[in-house]
Amino acid sequence: MMTNKEIFKEIVEIMREDSATCKDYGTGNSQEYESQISDDMDRKDFLHLVQEYLATFGVEGHLLFTDFSLEKIGFSVMRQDDVLYVIKANKDTGLVSEDKIVAIDGFSIKELFQREKTFFMGETAEREGKIWSAVLKFYNVLTVIHPDDSKEDISIIHNTKGTETECYSFEEYDDTLYLRFADFADLDAINQLLSKCKCILEKCKKLIVDVRGNGGGADSAFVPLLEYCFPEGEFVTDYYKPEYPIEINYSVRNCKDRIENLKKYLVGDIPEEMTAMLNTMIANNTENMGKGFLDDDDEFASGIIGKKGPEKVLIITDESCGSSGDAFAEVMSCSPKVTIVGRSTMGITDFSNCNVVSFDDFRFVYPTSRDKRIDYGKGLAHKGVPVDYYIPWSPEHIGKDVELDYCLNY
């Protein structure tokens, strides 16, 4: 097993050579954090220290250090003033929606926020929710006020069991089709969903696509939706024209890891065109290995032409919609048929296309591509893709779908 110091040293080396952030931030203030690491320190303290170091880079979502042995806490919150409102919770957490967390290990919410300020990267209170779950796992006891005004101290546990929810679903409302995508990770399941509702999709007057909390995946997963969301008879690329290219870091480590992962997909019975594409990608990484940053000249959505219907498309987003969710919202925002409702997306595509390195039970995730619009002050970080109709979050959202109600009455 690697020691704590060895793991941190390797992470710093990756930040120097392989992470797409190296141009902008190098290794950050690594020496300050390295001096605090010892091989006999508590596992949670080590995890906290490394995560805090990575948070200093200000890169959300695509720069992570996690512990396989430390499971999720099983509930999510939103902050307003000095209260964390529970919006979702597994049954065995002891929490319910509408619970108000007013203290954690004796700290008020504002005191704890100041204590862990680095983790929040300057985000506004409305955009902090996705970060609180990562912070609270380091603490033990919640002071909670229940909906009936009773007060209780509840221990945080990490092995809670949640009920599985559908990642992809559709619902028909008169002449409106509602589509829900919790992520863009499972291409087969998404294609099956679209096949099931194809007849409705072809005939509906209004389409609502809900990508709130979308955890990302592959941009190619939402390509089949594009023809329904852009004007009839016109190319998507006439509207969606990225101003700046993406550059990819072809470091030796990145290329070797990409080639190894790509070869895994070549095993088994796969279509010929998929085999050809994978072999091309392997050849590309072999040829460019060690060349550093090179521009990616692939044109997204090339050749796709818009259809007649639906007449209007509404996209629902929020601050937890990231990665391919960001990309989806950004592409759709270019169409005159589309209105985006809710709150700005997470905004984490400045640095993307992640690689994963395992250190025993720890996992380090870092980005290998960089959007060159960063150089012109046009990055999405901490801003996200803006909405056309902003619906601020409030405790009234708990138990009520304010955004969907707005879209159905639009």
TrEMBL record:
Keywords: Hydrolase, Protease. It comes from the Bacteria. One of its GO terms (molecular function) is serine-type peptidase activity. InterPro entries: ClpP/crotonase-like_dom_sf (IPR029045), Tail-specific_protease (IPR005151). Residues 176-390 form the Tail specific protease domain. GO terms for biological process: proteolysis. It holds the Pfam family Peptidase_S41. This is C-terminal processing protease CtpA/Prc, contains a PDZ domain.
